[in-house]
Amino acid sequence: MTTFETGLFLNRIPYAKAGSGANPIVVLNGGQAFVRRPSPDRTRRDVKRIARLMPAERPVYVVGYDPAPPADYSIDAIVQDCAEILRTEIGPAAVVGISYGGFVAARLAAERPDVVRELILLVSAHRFSPEGRRSIVRQIECARTGDFAGLLAEFGMIFRRPWFNWLLRLRLWMERNRMAEKMNDPMVIVRGLSAVAAEDFGADPAWLRRIGARTLIVGGARDVFFDREALEEAAGLIPAARLELLADETHMLPVERSRDVARAISAFLAGR
């Protein structure tokens, strides 16, 4: 039976852990960690969902972000937190970055190779697509004005299956009167999203060549946030990278093709 635990690293960074044993996998979550108000039930659901994508015999840590980020919050600050957590709390590990978390994971692997054994970028790359960057700017503006409906509407067409998108829009409509209580503090959302929007990672992607860890990039060819060009560029610059690009899939690839994603991750971590 899988064991679960939750807690804080560095007395402020929330985490959830599934399983026990050696060879840990550390997962840096997507931007929803900023957008939705954290709760024990949500944390447990997140770690269960993510752990199903990872090899069952290895412990999985899902690491969040500072719940009260400072005004000058940045990717470098998040990288420093993650490096300290790995150095003092967990030890060197396979690091998985999902979406937003991929920015952190890639930079961590480049700056602190001593703590990253393998790197997996899941529906993520070193930069947004042009449309992805425009969407992040719109999300920040919606959060700044308290327009939670507008913020979530940016995710209204991210599934490949049309009926999933329809269900998502229906759910948002049904929750419209309770949205404020489910969403995080607007300033937390703004500062979290601004940490990536403030930097142009693609301006000079040469830093990717400093990543020495064996790397797997798994993405969808129709992802509006991280398009084919961004994924292929990252795979071409990271010396030991392999790209698994699934045709016709979108940003919700880990949900809609979870078994295929799990098989790719398991094979990669097994060295196959």
Automatic annotation (TrEMBL):
Gene3D superfamilies: alpha/beta hydrolase (3.40.50.1820). Residues 64-264 form the AB hydrolase-1 domain. GO terms for cellular component: membrane. Signal peptide: none annotated. Pfam families: Abhydrolase_6. This is Pimeloyl-ACP methyl ester carboxylesterase.
